[in-house]
Amino acid sequence: MAELTIGIVQYACGADVDANLQKTMQGIRTTASKGARLVVLQELHRSLYFCQQENTDEFDLAETIPGPTTDQLGALAKELGVVIVASLFERRAAGLYHNTAVVLESDGSIAGIYRKMHIPDDPGYYEKFYFTPGDLGFKPIQTSVGKLGVLVCWDQWFPEGARLMAMAGADMLIYPTAIGWHPDDEAAEQQRQRDAWITIQRSHAVANGLPVISVNRIGHEADPGEGPGALFWGSSFVAGPQGEILWQADTQTETFAVAQIDLDRSEAVRRIWPYLRDRRIDHYSDLTKLYRD
Amino acid sequence: MAELTIGIVQYACGADVDANLQKTMQGIRTTASKGARLVVLQELHRSLYFCQQENTDEFDLAETIPGPTTDQLGALAKELGVVIVASLFERRAAGLYHNTAVVLESDGSIAGIYRKMHIPDDPGYYEKFYFTPGDLGFKPIQTSVGKLGVLVCWDQWFPEGARLMAMAGADMLIYPTAIGWHPDDEAAEQQRQRDAWITIQRSHAVANGLPVISVNRIGHEADPGEGPGALFWGSSFVAGPQGEILWQADTQTETFAVAQIDLDRSEAVRRIWPYLRDRRIDHYSDLTKLYRD
After folding, report:
1. Shortest CB distance from B159 goes to which of A122, A163, A272?
2. Domain membership flag for residue B187
3. What does the angle CA B244 – CA B250 – CA B251 come to, to the nearest 5 degrees?
4. From the first residue on, what is the mean pLDDT of each consecutive set of 10 residues in chain A (293 residues)?
5. How far is CA B279 from the centre of its chain?
6. Which range marks the domain in which residue A201 is found?
7. Which 202-221 residues of chain B touch chain A by CB within 8 A?
8. Closest partner CB to B283 (pick from A137, A272, A284)
């Protein structure tokens, strides 16, 4: 058994970005003290989810990579000897910003970055205003704990991203996330949405024979405008390579927890479910179209 | 609401192929009498699941399309005014056989066929011996009840097939299936497998905003050789376009049942979850490779 202990840091962000970073670092310390060697943070953990409105002032939240947050998280990664998957609002140039995941190696260096490829845009989630779609493609990041297939939030709804990471040798799929309910939606709709979110990510584990780690924030965040705000549903989870839930947080509790994955399971599962053997690549070329019309 | 009533025919096959066909036709009549306008049959419903061993004599089970079974099912489709998705062992030529789904229109004609594209092969499921992988690609079949994205069993594990059907305008995804447990597997493994099977198919609903209909057989079928046979797990189900389970059979009961889907829901769901808008086709070209090495 090649066991790896994963740390999950799920909490409610506030308006004070420094306080959020302190909370993040507290979560990393706590999970490291429980044995975590890889710690996964929620999406855009440094701030409130500012995409509830389109406001040019919010670009002030962005920072370079490397930059002040990667410096602090890198130092902590080195101190604790852990790998950290962080999620930052990246300022690449004036007028060019990305929603970027940064992987910090346990020696404090930056192992690599992933720029969110699929960008959502719907009422309360105006991400296309803030983030240019990533230009780095779907490339896993090599670390001392494995090759990490890091994707971000909206990517989780696209089987293509997960598949391309698996095909490039990812040992696991990782989704920092910020997703919540519209507080006015009825309970049945809220349940369908959360269930769909869990189901689609578990399916990437199944289709690719890989563990999946998904970390989401909690808490209600008010809309700076007229809307009802967003109620982030937490439910961070870890699934094994058959899509089986190995560990899951609830919808509203601050959670600095660890879960185990067994990296040897993928080999065994892919022997009984050898989907990579049977893909019909001779008939897949239309996947590079938007629609077959 | 554009409601469509689906008939599901789940039962245990026996050695007598004529008796199986009578059972199938009884199931079609029963579900039609309950209001079904589209009836979906389980995979290879005309016979026992003969792929438990490699035996050239089993090719005697194959038939042409059109052929005796499509004649009988076509006549029944016309009599009852229903569309039928059947699944047959197709003899295309000497030495060339397919695992083929046939869609019979309510006027008795053949609306179209789909030849199973992804062919499994593992102990007890020696399908690569019997079935040449389909050469028709992933094309939905137009009928009077909608454009049917018909796929077959092993296809259900591949997000690519579901996506290509959705991109070609399918109104729903349909999976005739024959899948079961290895009787010697421990209960936890059996549960993981069935859960994964449900999860991956629900995920195609989610990813594509389409209803999914999956029909599986039940019953234990002895292995003609030395093996413990296969215990088919039934669990036929219908899911809505958010992946929500609308109806599900159990693992062991003969079930001639109906379930409703609302074809207008896909429009509403795709407006709130517009994944087709955001696919990164500029970075998907490697999906036509087997592996990215």
Report:
1. A163
2. yes
3. 120
4. 94 97 98 98 98 96 98 98 98 98 98 98 95 98 98 98 98 98 95 98 98 98 91 98 98 98 96 97 98 97
5. 27
6. 3-288
7. 202-204, 206-207
8. A137
What's the pLDDT at B54? 96
A98 located within any domain:
yes
- Are residues A30 and A72 in contact, defined by beta-carbon separation less than 8 angstroms? no
**What's the pLDDT at A1?**
64
Alpha carbon B112 to its chain centroid, in Å, reads: 15
CB A173 within 8 A of CB A162: yes
The domain that contains A76 carries what CATH number? 3.60.110.10
Q: What is the pTM of this model?
A: 0.98
What's the first-to-final CA gap in chain B, in angstroms? 48
For chain B, positions 185-204, list CB contacts with chain A under 8 A.
192-193, 195-196, 199-200, 202-204
| CB-based contact A281 B293, cutoff 8 Å | no
Instruction: For residue B1, name the pLDDT band (cuts at 50, 70, 90).
Output: low
Residue B293 belongs to some domain of the structure: no
Q: Is A68 on the interface with B (CB under 8 A)?
A: no
CA distances from A50 to A97, A123, A183, A225, B193 (A): 14, 13, 17, 11, 41
What number is the average pLDDT over the span B146-157? 98
CA-to-CA separations, B52 to B13, B176, B178, B230, in angstroms, rounded: 14, 18, 12, 8
The residues that bridge with B245 in the sheet, in sequence order, are B239
Q: How many domains does chain A have?
A: 1
Q: How many CB atoms lie within 10 A of CB A195?
A: 17
pLDDT in tens, B23-38: 999 999 999 999 999 9
| SS3 assignment, position B67 | coil
Position B243 in a domain: yes
